[in-house]
Amino acid sequence: MSPYEQTARRALASRRDYNKVFGIGAHKTGTTSLAAIFRLCGLSVGDQAVGELTGYSARRGKFQKLIEYVQTADAFQDSPFADSAIYANLDAIFPESKFILTVRPADDWFRSFSQFTAKRYGVAAGQAVTRAHVEADDYLFPGYVLELDSSSYLSTPPDYTGQGPAALVVEWDKLFDRDHYVACYERRNAAIRDYFKHRPEQLLEVDLTTETKIDKVAAFLGLPDVFREVPMPHENKT
Question: How many helices (H) and strands (E) does the chain have?
Fold first, then answer.
């Protein structure tokens, strides 16, 4: 830990009035940069790979592994915090926490997200990422990415009213369909805003791709003004 981070941690020790901090923006909205900001602000950050593994059980309504993980650090981002409506579960389990919704223009987000995925799979420009690419992905363990991608953007839950399918439907024909993904992205962001609309002190919405300093995040976390002049770290850009 650098002397700067140590100073920030001392400042937070006397000023912090919240529980945990969760970055809940979608992938490719500056989540890696947000982790760097958390460290600059004196917060310990959860191990991302460990967090991703807890999401597998949390998406099935089993939260014990996620709870144990969140107890290991101050701040968190990426999966499972970037997925679905898990922010509501975290709000109930860890009251008095703060949430940061990182955003960017929808078209810019989809371009970044799709290009990042194509690069991971070695897909040439102009070619499509296919279900076969996703099924062959063995990141963390075989089937992890398949389940995550389908649950995040392609799954329609059972219709318990009797008016629609009674079982989970995965619409693979919409894999990286621009309009479908943008609609999912915008719908989730809107749901987050609505969820916190009566508690604005618990939610910060910020586009890190346009910021030059960490002032908005530092102010949200209660750091003194001097910490707000720190340049914005831009990491893992696409």
Answer: 10, 6
